[in-house]
Amino acid sequence: MQQRKCNVHVFPDEKVIECSRGDNLLKVLQDGDIPIRSVCGGEGTCGSCQVRVAYSEAEEQLTEELACQLSVDDDMWVTVLPESRISEHQILLSRAEADEATLSREGPLKEEVSVDPLLQRESLSLTPPSLTDNTSDLDRVCRELIRETEAKQVTATLDVVKTIAPVLRRCDWNPQVSWMDLPDGPSEIIEVEGPTDDACYGLALDIGTTTVVAELVDLSNGREVASAGEYNRQGQFGEDVISRINYSASRDDGPATLQRAVIETVNELLAELISRTDTDPDSIRLVVCSGNTTMIHTLCGLDPNNIRKDPYIPTVSSPPPFSARQLGLDVHQSARVLAFPAVGSFVGGDVVAGVLASGLHEREELTLYVDIGTNGEIVLGNSEFLMTCSASAGPAFEGGGIRHGMRAMDGAIERIQVSPDDLEVYCQTVGDVPPIGLCGTGLIDTLATLQQTGVINRSGRFSDDMQHPRLRESEEGLEFVLVWEKQAGIGDDIVITSGDIKHLMRSKAAIYAAIRMLLQNVGMEESIIQRVLIAGGFGNYLDLESAVAIGLFPDLPRDRFRFVGNGALLGAVEGVVSGQSWHEATGLASKMTYLELSAESQAGEFMDEFVAAQFIPHTDLSLFPSVEAEGEGVQLTSSEETEENGDTNE
Length: 650
Description:
Blueprint: E1 5-11, E2 15-20, E3 23-24, H1 25-31, E4 50-54, E5 63-66, E6 71-72, E7 76-80, E8 119-123, H2 137-148, E9 154-156, H3 158-170, E10 176-180, E11 187-193, E12 201-207, E13 211-218, E14 224-231, H4 241-250, H5 254-277, E15 284-291, H6 293-299, E16 322-323, H7 324-327, E17 336-339, H8 349-358, E18 367-372, E19 375-381, E20 386-392, E21 412-418, E22 425-429, E23 437-438, H9 440-452, E24 471-474, E25 477-483, E26 494-497, H10 498-521, E27 531-535, H11 536-541, H12 544-549, E28 561-565, H13 567-577, H14 579-591, E29 593-594, H15 600-612, H16 625-630, H17 638-649
Parallel strand pairs: 1-7, 9-11, 12-15, 15-17, 18-27, 20-29, 21-23, 27-28
Antiparallel strand pairs: 1-2, 3-6, 4-5, 4-7, 8-10, 10-11, 12-13, 13-14, 16-17, 18-19, 19-20, 21-22, 24-25, 25-26
Helix pairs in contact: 4-5, 8-13, 8-14, 10-15, 13-14
């Protein structure tokens, strides 16, 4: 018996999606390419996929529901709410962007990198075969390539071998060979063709959890031709890696679905780059990827499930080279795809790429490298040592678990200040449109300014004796109104709640506690740190003073801080441009000492540091002298501090 079909009418997209009766509404919307948020991957715990539903076109009584909790049992008319929609993100393409309101940004971190890509092109002049020289076509090419280059051993795939005979005879035995000096293996021929002056390109990719960024590079001169960024389509299956791992584990086709989503994202970026630059896809013959361990697993179609299970072992740390054909990338099908090696399950190749680009492993200055997302990935070191760890900051800095939290999309509040005189709120949104929520940078500003104006105390609790219309009681406790409904773009007040503040306090505490643990394990104090490199899109847009004020970063002279931009992409570009840098990167991961904070030897001390950091800026104010000197905000009495510590330990 044929299953009955239903129509889902989606607004404001003006789209009709046909599905089977009983299908899950969230999946129907996702399959119909409706950009709807799903922070928890459809588990029904985050509340991010809210929609308004009617069961007839004329029905005026609309109900707000979670799409992931609804099945389609009849025709439906569905409106995806503004705060539930995925729109364009602030995407940091490469270098740090200038922002006069914050610390000045600088240019490249390293001296010029020599242009010597892994992929080379060599024009050969072969002696034609004869009855006295019956060497095969492939051996003839390999023999001459070894003679003309530094290659010691050369191989080729069957796809390449199939093309050699006709090409050699067509070009009168004067071929041009594209070949790659692969790490720890023989050199490999990518293509044999006739003489050509056509450009040859490499593609650098940063496969991020939230966004994917691509940069096209001319391999002849190392010039960056064009770049583009796009929301990672995997986001519809969960906004953090754990949600996506859970999604993958819950379905037989989970790994394949996640791989298809990220490959579609990359191919969409490729189409944009090719269109803008009038590039032949076949001229792209090298792809270098950076990404966290889970993202690289999903790119390769590997099951990431063991990454989340004790003892947290990935399927592969140093992925072997893949061909574009194997992954389905829209470039030359024999192009090799390389991925930066990971240090562990939660310190991935994106961190290794960032360290490579920063050059911190080559310098004497003690450097702290911090890349904050759902996980805070941190490296401490210099030319003598490298130690790294990962702290689970949770999704709060990316809007997850926050009543009105969201990614850095149009309408997200990215800057906010509260007047100490009348508690008026001044905010700036991404895209300069009416606010619909708060992204990570706005949340950090909010935490800092609410404490500085006395709305919350150092433990993050709202003031008990403050009387103001913005501070009010709700079903979930006290909340503070940041934007009144008439100024908001969502038809409701935008607030920050007691629960939101607890989430933020835990997130910032996890990052700072991890920094303290790295320092303790090498017997050093914060004051010895000579440079702090803040990487990633989130870091690029945050206000440094707010970040220090809440205790996210150490209280060091501000001239020691540097926003480096998308370190993972910068490293990938360097890997495309320089074979020497790529070989260097493959050894970097093995040189980095990984500190597992959940291990028995570290867990107790980390928990102590974590508890101590769940105050603004910290229980020990001597660690934050510049914040202490300001003397603003409500201070804890000794009894209150004791009480708050007890609450935290619970």
